[in-house]
Amino acid sequence: MFPAHRSVSGPHRQLGSRQRGATPRIVAIGGGTGLPNVLRGLRPLLYGPEQSEGTPSRDRLVAIVATSDDGGSSGRLRAQFNVVPPGDIRNCLAALSDNHALIADIFQYRFDGGDGLDGHPIGNLVLTALADVTHDFAKAVEIAARVVGARGTVLPATREMVTLVAEFDDGRIVSGETAISSGGGRIRQLSMLPERPSVLPGSYEAILKADVIVAGPGSLYTSILPPLLVPELRDALHKTQATRIFVANLMTEPGETDDYSALDEILALERHLEAQLFDCVIYNTSAVPSAVEEQYAAGGARPVVTGSFELAALERLGIRPIGVPLASEHPAGKIRHHPDRLAAAILAIAQRKLGAWRGRVEAGGS
C-alpha cells in the first residue's frame, strides 16, 4: 500500500471532473541527462497513437528544467548573451519531439569546428536567438517546442539565471555549478543566488494540478535540487496532492554524492527542503555490467546502494521503495536508466493514484 496521503479536498482538486480512464498528468523536475531520459520514456505512453485524436492536452507531461548550468555551450552563451542557459531545455525539447522529426535531429546537431561555433548545438543557438528577438526566454522555449513538434510542455525553473552556492564540510564556499561539480569533498548545504528568483506561473500551477511529480534521476546537487530550492516551486511541492516520486541514481557521482546510498539522497533532499516530501522511491535492482562498473570505479563512482537497511529506513520515513531493473548500458560504456522501464513504473503509480481518487469520489468521499 502507498503511505497515507493528505486529504485531496480543496481548491486544487476537481476530482469529479476527471473522467474514467483519463490520462494522468505528470510533472518531471530536474536537468542534465536524467530528465530527458524520463521524458523520452513517458512521451509515447502519454501521447501514443491511441491518444492522437484531436489535440492532446499539453499538461499531460510537463518538464520543469534547472536553469543553473554555467558550463560548456550553455555557459558560454549565458556569459556572452546574458541568457538563461539553454542546453538542458534543448535536450528536453528533443526528448519530447516526434521520433521521426528531422528538425529535432538538426536541433541537436553540435558544431565541431568553426570560429566561435565550436561546441555549440544548433538548438542552443536557436533558443538564444529567439530569446533575443522576443525578449522573453519562456516565449522562446514555447516557439522552439512548436518547431520541433514537442509533445507536452517544457518550462524553465526560473525566469532568470541563477548561480548555485555550495558549502562543503571542510568549510569551503564554492560558487557556480561547474566549480561545485569539480570541487571535491562532501557538500553540506546548497543555496542559490538570487535567493528568490522569479518563476513562470505555469510551473507553480502544473505542480498543484499534477497527479504525479517525478524528481530525478540526475546530479543531486546540480540538477535535481536547484529547481526544488526555488521558493515558489518548493512551496508548490509542499502543497500539491500529487504522489511525489524520487528516482534514485544508478551510480554515485564523484565530487557530489561520494558513497551516497538511495537513503542518503533522500536525507539530503529532506535537509534542504525542510521536510520529507516524497511518497515513493524508485530504485534499481539490476546489476551493472562488471566491465562498466570497473570503468566507473576508475573515475571514483560506484553503484548506489539500496540494501535491506536502506529499504527499512525508507519505509520508516513513510516512503514506499519500488525496485525496478533499470540499469541499461546505453550508449556503450555508459550506464543510464532504461527509459521504457522507468516510464512504465511511473505510469503504474500514476494510474493507481487516479484509480484511488476515482474510487473515493464514486464512494462519496472528499
Question: Summary?
Answer:
By secondary structure, the chain is α/β, with parallel strands linked by helices. The protein is 42% helix and 15% strand.
CATH topology of the domain at 21-67 and 199-362: Rossmann fold
Q: Please count the beta strands (DSSP E, at least 2 residues each).
A: 12
Write the CATH architecture name of the domain at 21-67 and 199-362. 3-Layer(aba) Sandwich
Structural class: alpha/beta
- Side by side, the strands of the main sheet go 3-2-1-7-8-9-10
Number of helices: 14
**Range of strand content:** 15-25%
N-to-C terminal Cα separation, in Å? 20 Å
The CATH homologous superfamily of the domain at 21-67 and 199-362 is termed: CofD-like domains
* Overall morphology: globular
Secondary structure layout plus pairing:
Elements: E1 26-30, H1 34-46, E2 61-65, H2 72-81, H3 87-96, H4 102-108, H5 122-134, H6 137-148, E3 153-156, E4 163-168, E5 173-175, H7 177-181, E6 187-193, H8 201-209, E7 212-215, H9 220-229, H10 231-239, E8 243-247, H11 262-273, E9 280-284, H12 290-298, H13 308-316, E10 320-324, E11 327-329, E12 335-337, H14 339-362
Parallel strand pairs: 1-2, 1-7, 2-3, 7-8, 8-9, 9-10
Antiparallel strand pairs: 4-5, 4-6, 11-12
Give your account of this protein's structure.
This protein is of the alpha/beta class and about 375 residues long. The chain has a domain at about 20-65 and about 200-360: 3-Layer(aba) Sandwich (Rossmann fold). Helices cover about 40% and strands about 15% of the residues. It is built from 14 helices and twelve strands. The chain has a seven-stranded parallel sheet with strand order 3-2-1-7-8-9-10, with helices on both faces. Helix 1 packs parallel to helix 3, helix 1 (about 35-45) packs across helix 14 (about 340-360) and helix 5 crosses helix 6. The protein starts with about 25 loop residues before the first strand and ends with a helix. The model is unreliable at about 1-15 (pLDDT under 50).
